[in-house]
Amino acid sequence: MTKKQYCEQNNVEMDRVFDMVFGEGGGILPTASAFTGYIAEIKEDCLVCTNEKLGVFNKEIPFSSFQRAEFGIGSGNLWLQCVVDGKPFVFCSPRKCWKSDAGKLLIEKIGEKTEILSMKEYKQFTGKLFFIYMFK
């Protein structure tokens, strides 16, 4: 299922849906491989994750369960490394997703519950001089 299909089926605006590639999750979300894609709907109080291929529909992760968050760059991707209910929850997304309204909303919602460390990484990854930064 694409993000557009998800929005149409669930009557959700595109600026409330975020494509994420899940890297590590301590059992919070199921994975098929090291990097599993999820469509994440950003609600007022939680992130709702769906992966149709894995049969995961509407798995809620409350923003109140985020205890730590920090940006980092690895393998040319921007990763958000979080601790959720004491477990690791790590994901990345393409640059255009981080720059989107949905990406900004996700950062805002997590930031309301815990400080997001290394925002400098986010700003450099999404900024105008991105290519210079990546090749340092």
Care to give the gist of this entry?
With about 140 residues, the chain is of the alpha+beta class. Helix content is about 30%, strand content about 40%.
Q: What would you note in describing this structure?
A:
The longest helix has 13 residues, at 101-113. With 136 residues, the chain is an alpha+beta fold. It has a single domain (3-134), classed as PH-domain like. An 8-stranded mixed sheet has the order 4-3-2-1-7-6-5-8. The chain has 5 helices and 8 strands, in the order H-E-E-E-E-E-E-E-H-H-E-H-H. A hairpin with a 4-residue loop joins strand 3 and strand 4 (56-62). It starts with a helix and ends with a helix.
Largest sheet, in brief, is:
8 strands, mixed
- The dominant shape is globular
Strand content: 35-45%
Instruction: Say how many strands there are.
Output: 8
Which structural class do the helices and strands define?
alpha+beta
Distance between the termini: 36 Å
pLDDT averaged over residues: 91
CA radius of gyration: 14 Å
CATH fold annotation: PH-domain like
CATH architecture: Roll
Helix and strand topology:
Elements: H1 3-10, E1 17-24, E2 36-42, E3 46-51, E4 56-62, E5 66-74, E6 77-84, E7 87-93, H2 95-99, H3 101-113, E8 116-117, H4 119-126, H5 130-134
